[in-house]
């Protein structure tokens, strides 16, 4: 029912989604999040703050990682769907960035935010595993961005080395410069192939954590 309700609209661009894990005091250590979701009278009451969330300022629906059973640590984390008009849900600051400005990033605040228990994604306690799967695949996309930026840097470096003249000839003729450019290309090629391998594993529904 959740897939039927949200996925077609996301694909058509009718709604924008966001995925909220990171908190002011919990970044890489995802298990240490403090956002909670307490079940009460058929609802979840969500409290906490998320930061550095992609699409936060414009999201229509958010998947929030919250602890439904704090005593269990990572195994007490659950994923809960929160729509933008849910009572107690507010969008905080929009963060300024040096680059990647096509993606808006910001803060999400939950103050006694009330959503139906039917908004639980999957089962209670599976949120951390769901989060790790999302991160695993997301990192492949980030790797692709990194490879593309590195490739652009290499191309700019080659162009520059052919244009800059020293001692009467382009610096691309110097062995030291050639060695640096060759090393850059070798590293980029290796990174690209590793990224392709990880993407291929994902396409075949296989784990790619090592890659």
Quick rundown:
The chain has helices at residues 2-12, 127-163, 175-203; strands at 17-20, 36-40, 43-54, 61-67, 77-83, 89-94, 105-116, 120-121, 165-166, 169-170. It is an alpha+beta fold. It folds into 2 domains: 2-124, Butyryl-CoA Dehydrogenase, subunit A, domain 2 (Beta Barrel), CATH 2.40.110.10; 130-203, Butyryl-CoA Dehydrogenase, subunit A, domain 3 (Up-down Bundle).
Written account of the structure:
This protein folds into 2 domains: 2-124, Butyryl-CoA Dehydrogenase, subunit A, domain 2 (Beta Barrel), CATH 2.40.110; 130-203, Up-down Bundle (Butyryl-CoA Dehydrogenase, subunit A, domain 3), CATH 1.20.140.10. It is of the alpha+beta class. The mean pLDDT is 93. It is built from 3 helices and 10 strands. The relative contact order is 0.12. Helices cover 36% and strands 28% of the residues. The two termini are 34 Å apart.
Distance between the terminal alpha carbons, to the nearest Å?
A: 34 Å
Output the CATH homologous superfamily of the largest domain: Butyryl-CoA Dehydrogenase, subunit A, domain 2
Helix content: 25-40%
Which strand order do you get reading across the main beta sheet? 1-4-5-8
- For the record, the CATH architecture of the largest domain stands as Beta Barrel
Low-confidence spans: pLDDT under 50, at least 5 residues? none
Number of helices: 3
The class by helix and strand makeup works out as alpha+beta
User: Using DSSP, what is the number of strands?
Assistant: 10
Mean pLDDT: 93
